[in-house]
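Worked example

This section walks through a single chain of length 384. The input is the sequence exactly as stored; nothing has been trimmed or padded.
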Amino acid sequence: MKTLRPFLVMLCCICASCSYLKNVKLLTEGEIKRENYVQTIPFEWRKDLIVVKARLNSDPTEREFIFDTGAFNSKVESELANSLDLEVVTHKTNSTAQGISQKIEVVRVDSLRLGETTVYNIGAGKLKYAPTSASPCIAASGIIGANLIKLAHWKIDYTNQLLHFSDTPFEVAEGSYVLPFERPMLSGTPSIEIAIEGKEVEGILLDVGYNGGLVLPLPLANHFKDTESKTILDQSTSGIYGTNTDSLIVKNLEVDIGGAKAKIPVEFSALNKALLGNEFLKHFTVIINYDKEEIYLQKQQEIRVAPPYSFLVAMQTDSLWVVSRTTSELSLQLGDNLLSVNGKRPNDLFTSHCDYVMNIGNLMRQDSLKLQKMDGTVLNISIK
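Given that input, the structure is written out below as tokens.
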């Protein structure tokens, strides 16, 4: 066996290198052949995420995708990819903001049509959603990622729910805030720098596939020691591969994002995420110029970012709740089961996991909840 080991190691390296080169080739092949165009398509606003419709290859059916500047690669749901006989080109490891990684197949989409504009030769990960993922409840077919987004200039009109893209940069209104960004060579995921309480923080992903506000790595919280904070234990935030346990410190801080200033709740995550999402961006029209590598924020309304919930429940079964977010002040731990919330079991309120995902906010809009624990005791808690 000793004589075989160097050969096996070399073979693994060669295979890894081939996979990398195939991924690079696929990432550089994407193109929009149309010239001098401006395309406008409507989008649905679901759970503070942008959902667009697109047609893949010769499929006559319009499919729904989450538009996501934070996704390095686009994704196509696995069963849909199989039904369309999408060619598997290579494999890669894919990671989410929840800190979960999976090795996935990468397919080639010969054509993806948005409105009257077609994008050719786009690579897409073959996506198998986790049972606890919220993503298929929002847009079942997958994700339009930054490997496609980098092929055009974009204007996101949150107010009118319109997405514009063009081969020519969009005009920028006077008084817009300017954010220079950096991006990887093979994709269009934009990383920006902002100021928090006068301190510069770089490497933050401007992520319209994230429906929260501003979240930063946990160690940065130590730079703002004089500010009151709240600690939250969380297992409610879901990505395509499900949820992960996180610890959050929340502080109300003054942020300066390209000149747009506001005092907002900033979350510091033990999963070391660094994201600026739609809870902040929806107050603007957002223009992305890939020639200049600049983002422009045209303010449409006063910036108000809601603080995160201190407490959340999820469906353990049809008849049992499970605590998915809590604080040290509550006598409840992550994973604790509950018999009822406000006298209701999960199946009294929701017909399915997706019904829960889309409508749990209705339950959480109240100031307090009445919880029945497994031993029958009742607990009244404030959730604001």
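What to look for: The chain has three domains: 23-166, 191-299, 312-382.
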